[in-house]
Amino acid sequence: MRTATCKSCGASIVWATSMQGKAMCVDAEPCEGGNVVLSGTERNLVFRVLKKGERAVGELVYRSHFATCPNAVRHRTRSERYRNDKMVETCGDLLLLGVRDG
User: What pLDDT was estimated at residue 14?
Assistant: First the structure.
């Protein structure tokens, strides 16, 4: 697999695409608690997210880098920061939840 480096935290990642064409960065090393399966070739790496309770038999599992990057919240779009009328903001390394202003 061709690896890249996360520009925020310096971790080793790989880029993969879903069958629908959505790109996602994935931690380069497999992990037991992961829920992402990679397949395809180095030039055309495809990811599949396992459903809850689904197991990958005979396949390595990985984790989305968005789930492990300490700076992930900085890369969310403004609309992703708003969830259930709560706004997610960063303050240094802290994640703050506050009520969205009117």
Answer: 95
